[in-house]
Design a protein that fits this description.
Radius of gyration: 24 Å
Number of domains: 1
Low-confidence stretches: 6-15, 219-223
Helix content: 55-70%
Order of helices and strands: EHHEEHHHH
Distance between the termini: 80 Å
Largest sheet: 3 strands, mixed
Number of helices: 6
Shape: globular
Strand order of the largest sheet: 1-3-2
Number of strands: 3
Strand content: 5-15%
Mean pLDDT: 77
Amino acid sequence: MASATVRNVPLLDDDTIPFGEEDEMRDPSRAGQKYTHPYVTFFHLFFRGAAILIYMFCGWFSDSFITSFVFVVLFLSADFWTVKNISGRLLVGLRWWNYVDDDGVSHWVFESKNSESYQSRVNKNEQRIFWLGLILCPVFWGLFFLFALFGLKFKWLLLVMIAIALNAANLYGYVKCNYGASKDLNSAATDFVKTQLFKNAVDIMTRPSGAPPPTNVRPTGVV
């Protein structure tokens, strides 16, 4: 049995920096710079980008499927761990994780640091890179899935499915953190669409009307 929660449950045997206290470890000399976490931002894209490049060009360097498979899975695993445990909490203040209680029940926890003081310190460039990398890479793997499926390359299809599963897990987890674990994603999307429609309606109603049509135009071509 599994459940989702947003409660702050302490990690068991966890020696990492407590969630929300990452700012205390931030180098003050980087304040005001374009990137406050340059190395984290780099590795957020490096591992997933490397996995895609190895998948695309592995045939140029080796004819061994096993070698290519192992290298791609290694980079995918490194990317999954990095995005889940490091880049998410440092770049955007989000974290998702799982623990099993004493009754053997598995709990999924989705945390978000949404205070105004914290969000004002989030680097917008890093935030943009985080979400672009998180969303675009699964799109590439989805295209690779179609190519492998219609090309009848079933051994590569297994590798692509592993990549999609790992990328989709992080994407789903962070979208869940961003919208709130207690809020259904369908309702969040519906609320977003409603908000956009309302804004468009208000814009149409408040938009200044154009010049009135001329009233002294003589009709032409009347039979």
